[in-house]
Amino acid sequence: MFNSLSGRFLVLTTIFVMLAEVLIFVPSVARFREDFLNDHLERAQIASLALLADDVLAPELEAELLDNAGVYNVVLQRDERRELALSSPMPGSVDETYDLREAGPVILMKDALLRLFDTQPRLIRVLGYPKDDGGELIEVTMDSLPLRTAMIDFGLGVLLVSALLSLITALLLFLAVRVLLVKPIKGVVGHMQRYAEDPEDARRIIKPVASVREIREAEEALKSLETQLSQSLRQKERLAQLGGAVARVSHDLRNILSSAQLFTDRIEMSEDPTVKRMAPKLVSSITRAVSLCETTLAFGKAEEPAPLLTQFNLAELVNEVLEAERLAIGEHEVSLSEDIPASMQIRGDPEQIYRAIANLVRNARQAITGSGEEGEIAVSARAEEEAWIIEVTDTGPGLPPKAREHLFQPFQGGARKGGAGLGLAIVAELVRNHGGKLQLIRSGQEGTCFEIRLPTGDLG
């Protein structure tokens, strides 16, 4: 409770009200003491009036009058002459004298505190003005213990009332803070928590409803922030999807255009003047297109569509992949081979499987041609009880350490200089969409082998 805002308000209010009451306590006790002494002076003056009726009082009557007044003696001064009006035996000599005629607030508070904390019985003399022009001065001698007792009783009453007022004030403030501040703040916090669960959902944006101006301003500022954040997240998601789609299209389109460049080399060898004139323009256009595709690869990665599963002949599909690669090999000493049963039928998306195998073969071919050495690429397949296994093996230089570390991560697993690192990431996703798995079986100086494992059962 005390760690909450309303709980701390409760404690602080109680402390502050008690502190205020303590500051009031001293003047209150000083005023009570002054009233107490003035009351005794007035009662002593009334007692002395008995002498006006009879100049001589019986000792018993005089003692009774003094006892009722709470004093030992009364001295009146009239016409600049001091007169001992009433008197009785005193228990000792006077210890202190207090003159109420000229005492200011500071003196009264000081004397009150001294008397309050003095536990010893004292005989005190009090001076003051008589009531109703009864003379110029009245003086009484009295015991201090009744005064101190009355001051303590009054002080305890003040403290008790102060404590009660403090608790009532603190409770009222506690309830007010709970209703006016804590509840609206909790409402804002609740909105923030719900918004954080799905910041792209525009329905979760806060709607300012607070009646307190400061909290409403905070709600309006939060609404503006959440609105901008939601728009930014939606825009970022759209851009990421668009960029990923462009990157995938660009990756495969670049490979298609690269094959088209090979055909332009043969077109340039034509003796037809028109063909010779148009061939450089064609080559330039294709080169620009390849460059554009490579540039757009920086847009990112998006999810592939779900595969359209059909039964197809794997040997025929692999043959198409290898025929396209033979055109790209040109004069390089790279041989291609396949070891796939002619009647082997697998279930999958032919277009996606084609792209997966083509990417692996192309990566192998680029690794071999980049090393400047001769090499061989082999595609083999076999059927097991629960999966179809497709292996792409090459005799190239193997994958560098960085490529192995981020093998299937887009834009990080590039094995050759200038590569975008999308090829293996695309293959891994295409295979994963079929419920399969792409694995690196080995890679080193003796070559590299990738394995595609496709489940024979239906996708789950």
UniProtKB/TrEMBL annotation:
This is histidine kinase. Keywords: Coiled coil, Kinase, Membrane, Phosphoprotein, Transferase, Transmembrane, Transmembrane helix. The keyword Membrane applies. Residues 215-242 form a coiled coil. Its main location: membrane. It catalyses: ATP + protein L-histidine = ADP + protein N-phospho-L-histidine. InterPro entries: HATPase_C_sf, HATPase_dom, His_kinase_dom, HisK_dim/P_dom, HisK_dim/P_sf, Sig_transdc_His_kin-like_C, TCS_sensor_his_kinase. PROSITE patterns: HIS_KIN (PS50109). It is an enzyme of class 2 (transferase). GO terms for cellular component: membrane. GO terms for molecular function: phosphorelay sensor kinase activity. The keyword Kinase applies. PANTHER family: SENSOR HISTIDINE KINASE TRCS, SENSOR HISTIDINE KINASE YKOH. SUPFAM superfamilies: ATPase domain of HSP90 chaperone/DNA topoisomerase II/histidine kinase (SSF55874), Homodimeric domain of signal transducing histidine kinase (SSF47384). It is found in: Membrane. Residues 248-458 form the Histidine kinase domain. Its EC number is 2.7.13.3. The chain crosses the membrane at residues 9-30, 154-177.
